[in-house]
Amino acid sequence: MRLYSLSVLYKGDPKVHLLKAAYDVSTFNFFQRSSVQEFMTFTSQLIVERSELGSRASVKEQEYLCHVYVRSDGLAGVVIADNEYPQRVCFTLLDKVLDEFSKQVSKMDWPSGSPATINYTALDGYLSKYQVR
Q1: Cys staple from 1: which of 17, 50, 68, 132, with CB 3.0 to 4.6 Å?
Q2: Contact assessment for residue 42 and residue 17, using Cβ atoms and an 8 Å cutoff
Q3: Residue ranges per structural domain of the chain
Q4: CA distance linking residue 53 with residue 50, whole number of Å
């Protein structure tokens, strides 16, 4: 059971953009890591784009399960995990991360934010804490 990606995005109008993300691509071949990370970023944005505000869903993409939670205020979170990782744990993690993110990062920064400008450092810690070893 593994978590590969944990991202916070903003579903704005007209498009979705990534605010912050953490990845664990250590199980992939060194030369595949950047393309796997790009795939996860792209997939996360696409799933949020296709999800309604105020919705939760789990979407299977290749051998991964992507769990998405889009809050009614447009803040969204995506966890990409393997098929065995418990869905309930993923949504608990997303609830916790989005609540904490919305308290630490001003809502005014969401529409224009990017991973370089958003100051939120907890994602890597959550990704490793929730990793089942």
Answers
A1: 132
A2: no
A3: 3-130
A4: 10
Task: Look at the pTM and tell me if it is higher than 0.90.
Answer: yes
Q: Give, rounded to a whole angstrom, the gap between the first and last alpha carbons of the chain.
A: 8
Identify the three-state secondary structure at position 22: strand
Token reading at 127: 């990704």
Closest CA to 97 of 133, 117, 121, 72: 121
Out of 3.40.50.150, 3.50.50.60, 3.40.190.170, 3.30.450.50, which CATH number does the structure's domain 3-130 have? 3.30.450.50
| Residue pair 42/16 in contact by the 8 Å Cβ criterion | no
* pLDDT, tens only, 29-61: 999 999 999 999 999 999 999 999 999 999 998
